[in-house]
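ok new one. same drill as before - structure tokens go in, u give me an amino acid for every spot. 296 of them this time. try not to just spam alanines like last time pls lmao
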């Protein structure tokens, strides 16, 4: 038999199913791990530090940074050293909920009386401090003219010195006009009654304003309770007839006493009101009203 040469131990195949000896097992591969952090600064001491230095000329050597000198007598502020990255400071305003959010989250307690928790905003008429209209009215008030006040008070008083003959058969006739209304007036002694077209004053002129206008001439003279008025009216409207009646009564008083002309004229009772309705114009709808303009 031929002898087989012995194989080296390293190349000897292992039989099937038998583990290799520990010295024959392959070395485990090194797993990739986190790299080591390099030191921040290499420690160089002794002659090694001098050997690592590069010869640099005096002109090329960088100048050290200038340090601000502290004023004399004042201690310098300690330098703050940052050992690591600064952590962000949380904003308290963002972390804390807003006041409005708290109010919304808080449940509203229902009052026993509805509306008891509401603030009243009613402005009383008697409270000028809270009424802005009253404040503006006070600012816009014009100074009162004393002369105008005296004249108004004098006009309110009856005319003194009126002498009218109140005989039993005395009659004073006149005619008054206003717009298209005509009033034929007769004054006679009596108790202050007005008869207009056979009707009393309150029935013919139910408006209190028109009644005051008609009574003005006799009240100014002071004979409102001693003379009766009989009038015949035609034409115009209600207001125009009242103005015509006042004009006729004033003219009749002038017939009774010519000395009353100055006072009656100053108060405007003898002036014939010339205002009338303006006539219609050709091409217009009324006196001034125009048809709508159309560009196209």
């Amino acid at each position: 038999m031929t002898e087989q040469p012995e194989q080296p131990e390293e190349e000897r195949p292992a039989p099937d199913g038998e583990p290799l000896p520990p010295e024959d097992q392959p070395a485990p591969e090194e797993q990739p791990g986190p790299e080591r952090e390099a030191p921040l600064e290499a420690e160089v001491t002794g002659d090694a530090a001098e050997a690592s230095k590069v010869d640099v000329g005096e002109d090329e050597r960088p100048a050290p940074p200038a340090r601000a000198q502290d004023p004399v007598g004042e201690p310098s502020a300690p330098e703050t050293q940052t050992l690591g990255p600064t952590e962000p400071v949380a904003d308290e305003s963002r972390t804390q909920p807003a006041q409005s959010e708290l109010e919304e989250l808080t449940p509203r307690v229902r009052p026993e009386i509805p509306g008891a928790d509401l603030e009243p905003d009613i402005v009383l008429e008697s409270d000028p401090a809270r009424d802005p209209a009253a404040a503006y009215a006070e600012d816009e008030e014009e100074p009162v003219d004393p002369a105008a006040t005296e004249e108004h008070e004098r006009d309110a008083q009856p005319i003194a010195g009126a002498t009218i003959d109140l005989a039993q058969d005395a009659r004073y006739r006149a005619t008054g006009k206003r717009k298209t209304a005509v009033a034929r007036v007769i004054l006679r002694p009596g108790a202050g009654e007005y008869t207009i077209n056979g009707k009393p004053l309150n029935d013919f002129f139910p408006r209190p304003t028109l009644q005051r206008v008609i009574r003005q001439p006799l009240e100014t003279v002071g004979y409102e309770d001693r003379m009766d008025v009989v009038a015949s009216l035609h034409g115009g409207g209600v207001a125009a007839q009242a103005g015509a009646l006042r004009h006729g009564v004033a003219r009749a008083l002038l017939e009774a006493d010519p000395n009353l002309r100055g006072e009656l004229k100053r108060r405007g009772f003898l002036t014939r009101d010339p205002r009338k309705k303006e006539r219609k114009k050709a091409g217009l709808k009324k006196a001034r009203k125009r048809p709508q303009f159309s560009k196209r």
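The first strand starts at residue 172 and ends at 178. and btw Residues 172-266 form a domain with the Ribosomal Protein S5; domain 2 fold (CATH 3.30.230.10).
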